[in-house]
């Protein structure tokens, strides 16, 4: 029996046949599996099993939607991988590690939150600056953009001024949130 290991992005996902596309497409369909080499299933499965044994590929679950490979490899090896694997000890080790990671993330959250709000404030500053530039150009006799529905100059100017004011109000909301995050960060660092 032959085997082809494929994925949607790069088509051939078999590391042994990586980049190994047939010289000439056999099928008129460029996505046809016939355009790729295959190999004996027993050889592919043997190689895949070896990748897991050597921990080049890491068996396990995703942790917070990512995999901390070094920690998994260390934990597998500490718990007898592959020949004398103690699954219960491994699961206990990983549960403790995941709890520690969650506690670390919770402790870092106020610091990350402050950075996020600082970035939002910069974002709103840039948007306000662009709108003020639009207003300045318009006040110097600039035209109303073609794609603008409002064709009356007075109403168009009012619309720009209102947008600038709305963006300043949004910025103030982020400034308030930033101050709260900084206070929380300060409180946590005093402990």
What do you see in this structure?
With 191 residues, the chain is mainly alpha-helical. The protein has 2 domains: 1-57, no CATH class; 105-190. It is built from 4 helices and 4 strands. The chain has a two-stranded antiparallel sheet. A two-stranded antiparallel ribbon has the order 2-3. The model has no long low-confidence stretch (mean pLDDT 81).
List the helices and strands and how they pair.
Layout: E1 2-3, E2 6-7, E3 11-12, E4 39-40, H1 41-53, H2 69-78, H3 87-139, H4 153-190
Antiparallel strand pairs: 1-4, 2-3
- The residue fraction in helices comes out at 55-70%
- How much is the radius of gyration in Å? 29 Å
Low-confidence stretches: none
H-E order: EEEEHHHH
The portion of residues forming beta strands comes to under 5%
User: What is the total number of structural domains?
Assistant: 2
Strand order of the largest sheet: 1-4
Number of DSSP helices?
A: 4
Total strand count, please? 4
Q: What summary fits the major beta sheet?
A: 2 strands, antiparallel
Q: What oligomeric state is this? A: single chain
Distance N to C terminus: 64 Å
Shape: flat
What is the residue-averaged pLDDT?
A: 81
Structural class: mainly alpha
Tags for this model:
about 5% strand; mainly alpha; 4 helices; 2 domains; about 190 residues; flat; two-stranded antiparallel ribbon; two-stranded antiparallel sheet
């Amino acid at each position: 029996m032959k085997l082809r290991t494929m994925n949607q992005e790069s088509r051939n996902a078999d590391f042994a046949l990586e980049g190994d596309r047939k010289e000439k497409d056999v099928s008129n369909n460029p996505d046809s599996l016939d355009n790729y080499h295959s190999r004996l299933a027993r050889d592919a499965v043997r190689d895949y099993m070896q990748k897991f044994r050597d921990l080049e590929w890491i068996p396990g679950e995703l942790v917070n939607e990512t995999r901390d490979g070094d920690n998994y490899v260390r934990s597998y090896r500490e718990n007898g991988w592959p020949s004398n694997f103690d699954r219960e000890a491994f699961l206990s080790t990983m549960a403790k590690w995941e709890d520690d990671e969650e506690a670390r993330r919770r402790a870092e959250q106020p610091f990350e939150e402050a950075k996020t709000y600082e970035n939002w404030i910069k974002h709103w500053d840039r948007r306000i600056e662009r709108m003020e530039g639009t207003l300045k150009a318009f006040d110097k006799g600039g035209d109303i953009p073609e794609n603008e529905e409002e064709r009356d100059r007075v109403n168009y100017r009012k619309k720009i001024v209102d947008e600038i004011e709305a963006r300043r109000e949004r910025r103030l909301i982020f400034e308030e949130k930033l101050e709260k995050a900084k206070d929380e960060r300060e409180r946590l660092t005093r402990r």
